[in-house]
Write a structure and sequence with these properties.
heterodimer; A: Rna Polymerase Sigma Factor, Chain: A; B: mainly alpha; 3 domains
Amino acid sequence: MAQLSGPEGVSQDMTALASLERDAELMLRVRDGDETSFALLLNRHRGPVVHFLYRMVQNPGVAEELAQEVFLRVYKSRGTYEPTAKFTTWLFRIATHLALNWLRDGKAERGQESIDDTGGEGPARQLEDRSGTIEQTLVYEARLREIRAAIEALPGKQRAAVLMHKYEEMEYSQIAGVLGCSESAVKSLLFRAYETLRARLAHLV
Amino acid sequence: MRCPIEAGNEKTLMVALTAGTLTPAEQEALERHIDECAECRRLADEQKAVWSALDAWTVPTVSEDFDRKLHARIAVEARRPWWKREWDSLLHGRFSWKPVLPVAAACVALFGVFLVHNPVSLGTSRTAPAAVIQTQDAQKVDVDQVERALDDIDMLNQLDAPVTTPHGSPAGS
């Protein structure tokens, strides 16, 4: 995650640390049968998990199904949960595993038609000046297609590493924990992925 | 600051620059260098363009019935027999099947090596005329050859036996 200097940075780190400890504490309560704690964890991590899976599989319906499977597995494993790693590491490990399996199984081919589907991407734009806004929308959509295609072209683990690094602001060590590899392997994955993305997206300045 | 490209750590630094994970001193030093080095400036601009493009990738909001569907799945799971839940847990959770195939392949290979060094008779009830009998000393004996040898011995025995006349007295007497 981004580091800031001074009191603001220290405060942010402490808040993050408290949040991580809170996750483990909540999950231990779920282990002991506290359903409310599970609801709190779900509320906190539902969005990030769904969004990560959406960017991995690029299909909103599949992303939500996989996300439900993630939380279902968390719930099923509650009886044997031990806080040996960060809760988010465990959570994203399950999510990445499910996403990579889905991609490997070739289901992406059946969902290919959704790649150009921009429905549900965000609120409809209010057209005030028709010509300017339409042009902006077309430019935006073309740019979005390029970004999605560039990400989709990355191999599974590179894709996962970039998404966790960029959108979840995970450090290399945590990404390594999710992917089950060394920190140097994560750096290699990331740098290769960013190099590919630079080649494809640098013109979108 | 030494040029990151010359130092070989340009990828680390440029990614860290755009991710905002450099210390203020590192960031200041790098930005000062970028102002002077065209190659590093180009690399930094490309990385910033990637970062900016990724920032523009918005995602749809989570559907309103996400939680309802999840809890429905949890309820279905709770109604399953305990042994099915344990089996699923074994398949997907506590046990990894990754080493099973290589171990199974290794066992098959070892068994194959064992069979080559310790051949086993199949023990069929009928033996074809040209059947080969394997002994523990790996000597192969042709059954036809054995029968011919026995016939030869029989013939030799007949040749050695004294010839008698129909009346029982030795011939030539």
